[in-house]
Design brief:
The chain has a three-stranded antiparallel beta sheet with strand order 2-1-3. It is 73% helix and 6% strand. The protein starts with a strand and ends with a helix. It is built from 16 helices and three strands. By secondary structure, the chain is mainly alpha-helical.
């Protein structure tokens, strides 16, 4: 059964869009008309994975490029669908029927197309993990490999439930960090814009009277006038520089050599570097523990965690650890030789290797470092907020002083 995307008019004459399963184009039209929906256009969604086409280039031209690659699929949507799919499978639904049931419940059109293509690929004989791997914009390597392990062991519904738990915990940590940083960042941006407005529009009008007097101005006033004149002429440059700096940083970090240097600097910064290491350790422990728990081999799991570490220095360290494990060594033995990984995480991994409770120790390590990161971010924001207020107060105080000094001097001359 194929999946068709339609644009149609409902009984009230309103244009609607959606998807429908049908044996053929004519059957799809009849099915819509039976629901008092009158199709304007009806297009079949081709499967992204086909068991009958073995040549990748040929498969690409057969189905065309996957335009959904450029569409945004939220991780929260994937988590919600994963939870619901696990519930349906536990209730006895076949996998294809479960996916077909969930397609209309997905809010994102891009994700609906992806799920429809996954369903179509399953009907053509592809494995679930293979069908998911064709859509990396929605399903990460961690997700695909855990599903593959669940398929192999016959515990797909359990794996999907664990995947949902894993994704929810990661999203909770991410949201808590974002919420803690939102207020200081907003304060900094608003403060910067207010100061820029004062210096480019308000201050020049106030100080113009002093420049017209042909009187020697105090040093703070001269500095203020110079800064104000520069900002009034080159305000666009001040606004453009942060954007250019961001893109330059992003471009340099994309290169192997530049990225390695930047990543090394990031984890070497006294306070921020320590926080970054804890965040990486939490992500590493959570991901590796989930993969091992669901039957993914250690070397495969290390390869996946290496690809999502987000830091080239740590990524190289994980690769060395994987090489050592392949040769009969221990994971903790390699990690403890580097300062790029927190010592406490290394010790917990070594204990897990010796006791045979690797999954349990990785889970405890993830919970510990996630809690430490949240506490550290909360503590940092509690310090950043008064620092921003203090800086704003100093700058505004300097502006007031620079404006008032000439007034005091004029009063002295009048007396």
């Amino acid at each position: 059964m194929a999946v068709f995307e339609y644009t149609a008019l409902n009984a009230r004459g309103r244009k609607i869009t959606g998807m429908i399963d049908a044996e053929s184009l004519a059957a799809g039209q009849q099915k819509l008309k039976a629901q008092d929906i009158f199709p304007i256009s009806l297009n079949r969604l081709e499967a992204s994975v086909s068991s009958g086409v073995k040549d990748p280039a040929r498969a690409f031209w057969k189905k065309g490029p996957d335009l959904d690659f450029f569409s945004s699929v939220k991780s929260s949507e994937v988590t919600m669908i994963t939870r619901q799919m696990s519930t349906l499978l536990s209730a006895g639904f076949p996998l294809v029927k479960a996916i077909a049931t969930l397609v209309p419940q997905t809010g994102s059109k891009a994700f609906q197309r992806i799920l429809s293509r996954v369903k179509d690929a399953l009907e053509e004989g592809s494995g679930f993990a293979d069908a998911l791997s064709a859509h990396p914009q929605a399903f990460s390597p961690v997700y695909v490999n855990m599903v593959r392990a669940g398929e192999s062991s016959g515990t797909l519904e359990i794996v999907l439930e664990r995947l949902a738990d894993f994704s929810e915990k990661r999203e909770d940590t991410k949201k808590q960090i974002q919420a803690a940083l939102a207020y200081p960042v907003l304060m900094a941006v608003i403060g910067f814009l207010v100061l820029l407005f004062l210096l480019t529009y308000i201050v020049p009008g106030i100080t113009k009277i002093f420049t017209d007097m042909n009187h020697a101005l105090p040093a703070p006033t001269q500095v203020l006038l110079s800064v104000s004149a520069f900002l009034k002429s080159f305000w666009w440059l001040v606004m453009l520089l942060p954007v250019l700096a961001f893109f330059c940083f992003h471009f340099i970090r994309k290169t192997d050599r530049g990225g390695a240097v930047i990543d090394q600097i990031i984890i070497s910064i006294p306070i921020a570097g320590n926080l970054t290491k804890k965040l990486i350790a939490a992500r590493f422990s959570r991901t590796l523990g989930s993969l091992i728990e669901n039957g993914v081999p250690m070397l495969t799991a290390l390869g996946i965690t290496r690809s999502i570490s987000g830091n080239r220095v740590v990524s190289d360290l994980i690769q060395k650890a994987a090489d050592a494990v392949e040769q009969g060594g221990t994971l903790g033995g390699v990690l403890e030789k580097s300062t790029a990984f927190p010592n406490l995480a290394t010790q917990m991994i070594k204990v897990g290797e010796k006791s045979g409770e690797m999954k349990k120790m990785l889970e405890k390590s993830a919970e510990l470092f996630e809690r430490e990161v949240q506490n550290a971010v909360a503590a940092a924001t509690s310090i950043v907020e008064p620092v921003i207020i203090l800086i704003m107060g100093v700058v505004i105080g300097f502006i007031i002083l620079a404006v008032c000094l000439p007034i005091f001097e004029i009063n002295e001359l009048i007396r």
